[in-house]
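Record phosphoenolpyruvate--glycerone phosphotransferase, 124 aa.
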Amino acid sequence: MDKPGIIIISHVYEIAKGIERLLQEVARDVPIQVIGGVDKTNIGTSFDTIFEMVSESPSTNILAFYDLGSAKMNLEMVQDLSDKNITIYNVPVVEGAYTAAALLQAGVTKEDVEEQLKEIQMDK
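=>
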């Protein structure tokens, strides 16, 4: 079984890259991919770019984090069409992704990561 990976979807390129930089400090061995904005200058999200990123992920088991509602909507569409196992978390994007990355780096199972994320879940 492959190592779970993390994807981050943000409406802003710089936010996505900043989160990636933060996660790389605690999780160098965890596959992490980020996408921000429609491109490097325009704010938004794109189903096509998210689908492409998921398809190119080395992981078949993906933990997904997002910043705003339309990013979640695009993730849900990708989840429906992808053959990869994508779990979308309704947690604060930075705190949730950081928690997951650090725990995965430490060798914690996805199930145990999910238990920790329940503590910060936004839709309790």
